[in-house]
């Protein structure tokens, strides 16, 4: 009986501590991936449902990354998105951090701006902004009624002026200061998933001819300015132990979009900054690189190529489709990432890390239960409704 409850060998590396280059140590290498929960109050302050959702999924983890949190009024891309926009947001942020830390995990606040993916009804009038002209595209998770209302408000993103770009750089730094004040252990800069920082780096969305666009070096100027501003804010606070990570998406589909060479060039600049980790955003942990078949001397997986290029200069966090214990174990044993983040699997199994540590990974289920509903599974009602609309992104059994 006792041996059945012992952790299985394939998971043991996940439960080794990891010490960052600033001396901060995580108790283990399992991370709760940042997940949109649609659950903050209308003003962006923390709600009870949000705190319950995050806290209920923090047990047994080394680190928890919060949902994308807006740093500026023009950046809100989700109903129920949390804010780190002004000092009044700090008390709610503090409660989120404490709900994570109560379980022994490090709490990291993800800093976000939606750019042209912000929603018109959530930002000031005409407030959806972008590096270059862009026709707004409604996301799949909102209702037809909201899509129509947003289309009536704004259909073209407003191009950012130079002064506004600099204001947004300062907004990221200010949000990091709020995170410090709220007691978070770190922040993650969201430069992935087609949001503002990625929009600036991609030639598909940045067609500027000033210092913020054009060549690869000028396109990366904004994300690097944000990263420097955030790390400078941490240095001013005298918090050498504070974690700063950067999340990126490695490749884009359009021919002129971000390619692996662009990502590797960005990585080479990011590692020069006082960051603690990089986080590659993937739909599937093992998804192949765009040109995987063209060069057999390189590993086919995007994450493997990135890890090889990093060569130990910073820890890499991997994510993507890690729902079952077998998926998580395979990712850990791949050697492609020092940190393993779990998202959808944690929505389904809030205590997945506790079960794995106890050798009880076979008890992990592969779907939510419609019969139990949202509250019993510690899921905010707004998120539950999104999950129902987006079946089978997170599978729900007994769903009719």
UniProtKB/TrEMBL annotation:
InterPro entries: Aldolase_TIM (IPR013785), NADH_flavin_oxidoreductase (IPR051799), OxRdtase_FMN_N (IPR001155). It holds the Pfam family Oxidored_FMN. Gene3D superfamilies: Aldolase class I. It comes from the Bacteria. Signal peptide: none annotated. Keywords: Flavoprotein, Oxidoreductase. This is NADH-dependent flavin oxidoreductase. Coiled coil: none annotated. Residues 14-359 form the NADH:flavin oxidoreductase/NADH oxidase N-terminal domain.
